[in-house]
Amino acid sequence: MVYGRRLEANPLITLLLLIIFFLTGMSGPSGKSTPQSSSPAGGALTGKVIVIDPGHGGPDPGAVGVSGRTLEKYNVIWIARDLKNLLEKEGAEVIMTRDGDHYLTLDARVRLANQRGAAIFVSIHNDANLNRQIRGTTTYYYNAVSRPLAASVQRELVRALGSNDIGIRQAPFYVIRKTHMPAVLVEVGFITNANEEKLLVDPSYRLRAAQGIYNGIASYFGSKAGVSVR
Ligand SMILES: [Zn+2]
Fold first, then answer.
1. How far apart are CA 95 and CA 149, in angstroms?
2. Please, how many CA atoms are within 13 Å of residue 15, restricted to the half-sphere of its CB?
3. What dotted CATH number matches 2-220?
4. How far apart are CA 28 and CA 216, in angstroms?
5. How remote is the CA of residue 116 from the centroid of ligand 1, in Å?
6. Comparing 225 with 174, which gets the higher pLDDT?
7. Shortest CA distance to 201 belongs to which of 214, 187, 212, 191?
8. pLDDT at 40
9. Of 88, 187, 196, 197, which is the active-site residue?
10. Euclidean distance between CA atoms 44 and 34, whole angstroms
11. How far apart (Å, rounded) are the C-alpha atoms in residues 212 and 205?
């Protein structure tokens, strides 16, 4: 629904874009900017290809909030977009497996990361449990090579959110088992816990989640380019 509205043509915006186009007189050979062109040359993550994978999408809503009104597939894409912006500011080349409300198979997500030679893969999810009291943050990894990334992301994410630290867990989820690079699956919080459901739809909480994941990634790469979380 959110995405349908965004697709409607707005004549005023079209006119503004045309004016900008003629004033600048250039839009690059392909007519759109690539992630590299907006990256600062000296950023701490320059040259790193990072795949962000917002879970679910399209006909797969992921987990449904305890209120019945919020869906995991929307919550995670906003966190992913904030994370993408932060990473690109430090020069990373970010590939999103999806940046709209559509579904990709798990295999398509993995193939994208493997074919593009990603340095790391980060899948973003909301957790769910029949027990509505359960709340907190968990980061999953599968291969031993992914453990340091999981530890770093979990530490910084919990610090940023002030959430219950469930810790890192090893589990054979497809997207972290089949990817050929350090890969983690982040469960930011429980959409089935009334308090965390409210937080997960709050834009400032989502931004803090992105900042926390970003700080974990920066720290993993040995960079001091973390952001302060407020
Ligand atoms: Zn999920």
1. 18
2. 3
3. 3.40.630.40
4. 34
5. 23
6. 174
7. 191
8. 54
9. 187
10. 19
11. 10
Q: How far is the CA of 173 from the centre of ligand 1 (A)?
A: 11
The answer to whether residue 187 is catalytic is yes
Phi, psi of 110 (to 5 degrees): -65, -45
The Cα 192–Cα 67 span in angstroms is: 8
Q: Please give the distance, rounded to the nearest whole angstrom, from the Cα atom of residue 55 to the centre of ligand 1.
A: 5
Average pLDDT over residues 167-184: 98
Q: Where are the beta strands (DSSP E) in the chain?
A: 49-54, 93-96, 120-127, 137-141, 165-170, 183-190
| Cα–Cα distance measured from residue 75 to residue 94, given in angstroms and rounded to the nearest whole number | 19
Q: Which residues are near ligand 1, the ion (C-beta closer than 5 Å)?
A: 55, 62, 125
Say what the pTM is: 0.81
User: Which segments of 64-153 are extended strands (E)?
Assistant: 93-96, 120-127, 137-141
Q: Are 211 and 157 in contact (CB under 8 A)?
A: no
Q: Per-residue pLDDT tens for 50-60?
A: 999 999 999 99
Distance CA 159, CA 8 (A): 39
Domain boundaries, the chain: 2-220
Cα(88) to centroid(ligand 1), Å: 25
Contact 58, 77 (CB under 8 A): no
Tokens 């690539």, located at residue: 34
pLDDT tens, position by position, 88-123: 999 999 999 999 999 999 999 999 999 999 999 999
> Is residue 137 classed as helix, strand or coil in its secondary structure?
strand
pLDDT band at 11 (very low <50, low <70, confident <90, very high): low
Distances (CA, A) of 51 to 94, 132, 172: 6, 32, 19
Q: For residues 105 and 161, is the Cβ–Cβ distance under 8 A?
A: no
